[in-house]
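User: two proteins, same treatment. go.

Assistant:
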Amino acid sequence: MRTTLKRLAQKSLNLTHGKLSLFGEMAQRATAGKPPLVAMFNFTPEHRARDSEACGLDAADTTLFDMRYFAAANGHYSFPHMPQAVGSIYVPMPDRLFDTLIIGSSIRLFDNAWSRALLAQAARAVKPGGKLVVWYSMAANPKGLFSQKALEAYFGTPASEHGSHHLVFTITTPPPSPPSVLQWYYGWFHQCLLGEVNARISGVENFALLDAPALTTFLCNPDSAYLSTTKTADYEKRGDRSASGKSLDTEINDAVGRYGYYVGGISYKSALMAGIIRHYCNRSQPLDYCDMGGGYGLLSAELLLTLDLNIARATNADISSYNLLHSAQMMLGLSSHLRDRLRFWLGPSEEFAFDGEYDVISFVGSMLYSPRAAVPAMLQRAWKSLKTGGILIVHENIKAPSYITDYEVMFTAAELDALLEPLGDIACWSSQLHEPVARNAVGNRTVFRVVQKRG
C-alpha cells in the first residue's frame, strides 16, 4: 500500500512538474523588475476577458488558472477550449508570488469553509501589499453566496477598493483557512510535491484485491476511520473502475485527475445541502447523516465540518474499495476533526440495510447506478429509517443527450418524481443558489428534490 501511495504521489508530481517550472519562471520575472504578475482563477475565456476589462487589465497580461483539474500530456489538454490556462486552482501555489490575483466571476464563492480555504490559498499567493480581487453578491439576499459584509469579516478589514460586483483587498496577512476538504487537499498536494505523503497506512500492495477483513484492517488503521462491511471485492465488478481491466498505473492516473472534479464539486453541493438542512432540521439536537454512493466521503466530511449543522455522525456508503484509498488519505489529514464521527460502509447502495436512524439521507448523483428494479425498495428502507422530521435528499442530473457516459442509466424528471411521490410531498431546491424552485417551474432542470417525513 505504501508503494501505491508513492505512485499516486509521483503521478501528482508528474502532472504538476510543468506548473512548478512555470512558477519558477514567474518568480524570476518578478525579481527581474518585469511588469507586475497578475493571476486569474476563472472558468471560460469569455469570463477572463470580461473580468480583466472590469479590473482595467488586458486579458493577455493575466496568467489564467482553470477552475477544473488541468493536465497536459503528450500535447493533449484535458480541456481544449481553455488552452490559455496554465494550471488548476487545485494545485497549491508558491507563497507571495503575485502582485494581483483575481478570483473570477465564474467561480461561485459560497459563504462556507470550502470557499474560505480557496480564499486563504489565494491570499497566500499574493505578495504583502498586493491585491486580491473577489467577486461577490450585491443582492440583499445573497442566497448562500458571499456578501460584502461576510467577505470583509473574513479578511478582517474593509475592502480597499470597490468595483462593479467585485471587491479589492490589500493583503498584509492572509486570513486563516478553516477545516475543509479543500484545505486538506491543498495540504495533501503539498505533501505530494515534497515527497512526504503520509505512509502510516499499512496493507497489501494492490488495493483492488483487498478482501473485506483486509479492508477493515486497512481503513481502521488511521485512527479515526470505521468500516462496517461483510462484503468482499466481488462488488468491484459493478460500478467501480478498478474492475474495468485497467492497470494500476492507469487507475492511479485517473484517480489524480478525478481529485479536482470531486473536491471542486463539494463547493456547491455542501453549501446548498447545508442550506437545505438548516431549513428543515431541528439542529438543537445532534443529527445523524447518511450519504449513499458518497465516493471518498468528501460530502459527508464537509457537512461534518460545518459546525452549525450539528451533525454528530455520518455514514458514507460506497461500492468502490478504490475510493476507500482516498477516504483513508482524507481521514489521515482531518482525523482531529472527523475521528469517531465518520464511518464507511462498502457495498452497493441497494444492499445497505438502513438499520440505524437518520435525520438526513442523501443520494447525490448515485441512485442511477443501482439496478432500476431495486430502487423502490431501497428508497422504502431509507424512508423507514428516517426519524420523524428527517429529510430525504435526491440530486440526479436529468437525462439528456449531452450526457454520454451514463446516458442509458440516467433518470428523467418524471421517473424521479414517480419514485419519490409515494413517500410524500416533493420540494425542489436550486442547484445554483440556495433558493426553492416551484415544482411546476422545474421542468427538466437538475434540482435537489427533498421529501420530509411528517409525524
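Protein 2:
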Amino acid sequence: MADVYWVDGDVVWVDGDVVWIGEAIIVQAATHAHSVDSPTLTQKHTLAVQGATHAHSVDGATVVLHLAPADATHSHSSDNISLTQKHTLVAQGATHSQTVDNVSVNLHLAADDATHAHSVDSPTINFTIVAADATHAHSADNLVIIEHKTLVANGATHAHTADVIDLEQRRNYGVASIQAGIVQEIKNIIQDTTYGYNDILEWMNDAQEAIAGGVFIVLSDRTQVFTSPLEPLETSEDIATTTNAYADLPSDYQRDLVYILNATRDLPVNIVETFERMITGDPVLETSGDVIEAVIKGNRLYYRGIPDSSQTLTLYYFRKPDDMASYTSTGVSFSGTTISDSNDGLGVFYAGQTIDLTGSNKNRGDFEIVSVESDGSEMTVDSTTTTESAGDSITIRSRPDGLPEHLQSDALSSYVAMRYFQRKSVTNIKMGDFAKQYAQEFYDTMIDIEVSQERTRRPMRMVANG
C-alpha cells in the first residue's frame, strides 16, 4: 500500500520508488480527502435532504461531487435519486419541479442501484386522495378525514388542492345532506328528467305527511291495517275556551287527541269518541260550568260545560310533520349560535328541525334549530358556529321530520316511487308492475317503522281480512 503525505497543500503518494503528486478535493463534512482521479466514491457519503433533521448514508451509491466557490454557503447535488412514492424531489438540473406544500409524506430516498434505501426524518402522510381519471395525484392541505374516504375530482386532468375538507362518517362529499341524498335516490328510481329537485322535495313532504297521518297497509295474508302515529311528533298546546261551546284546534294538529287537562281546575277532561255521543242529552251544548268532556269535529274542539270565565285546556296530540325546505343564499352569516340571512329567507325552517349546511368554508355540518325569527332574518341553533361573514353561496336543507332516521330514505323513496308509477300506469300498463314493487317495499318499511318505535300508544288497527 502506498504511503500518503501532505506537502504544501498537495497530496503525495509514495509507492515504492514512484512518487505521485495530486490536487486535493475536500468533500464538505467529509472526514478525509480523496484525489481528483477518484470521483466515484465507493465509501459511505452523506446525502442531505432539505428540511431533514439529519442525513442518512447510502451504501454503494455513485455520487457526482461539485466543488463550492470560496464564498458559497454550500453546494450539493443529488443525481439519480428515485422515490418509492410519487412525490416530487427537486434535484439539480431538473427542467421543472412540483412541490407539495404543507403535506408531510412518508418518503424513502434511494440512490440509483443502492442496495437499500433510507428515510427522511419527520415526514408522514396519513391519507391518500385520488382523482378519478386524473393523470396524477392531488395534494391536500389540512385535510381531515374521520374514516378512510376518497375525495373524487371527476374527470380532473391536473392537480387540485383540497383545503380544510372534513368528510364525516357515512357522508359523501358530493351529497352533503340527508335531504339531497333522498332526492337523488328518487331521481335514480324514476329516471324522469321532467321533474326537478323542488318537485321531488314537494312529493317527499306529501309522503311524510301521509305517513304521519296514518296509512292503510296490506300484510302478506292480505290483512289491512292502519298505521300508528309517529312518536316523535307527539306534542301539547294550550287553548282557551270561549263563550261558545267550541274552540279552534292548534294549527299543527294532525291526529290522535290522547289527553286533555283543564289546567285552570287541574282536572282531566273526558274525551268522547263521537260528536253524536257528545250531544246526547244536551244537543245544543249550552250547559254552563267547568269543561268536563270534549270531542273533535272538523278543526274544532267541542266541549261540554261553558265556564263563566275562560279556562285553559292543555291538549296532548300528534302534530303534522314540518315540511322540508332547501334554501340557498349568499347573504348567510354566522356568529355564536345565530345564523343570519340578509335576504330574509330563513322563514321556511322550523324550530326543532335538523338542518344540514353546505357551501360554507367554516360551518359545514348539521345543527338543530332552536328558534326562527318570523321575518326570516335569523335563526338560533343548538351549538356555537364559527364566525363567518356573508358572501359564500350557502345551502341549508332541513331533514325529514318524525321518521326514524335509519328508515327515512326507504320510507320516502318507496312511497314517492309507488305513487309515481301508480299515476304512470294509467296511461302505460307496464308501469303497474313497478307500482306493485314499490308498494310492497313501502309496506315492508312501514312494518319496520312500527317495530322501531320506542313505545306504541295503541297497536295498529286491523281493518279487514280478505
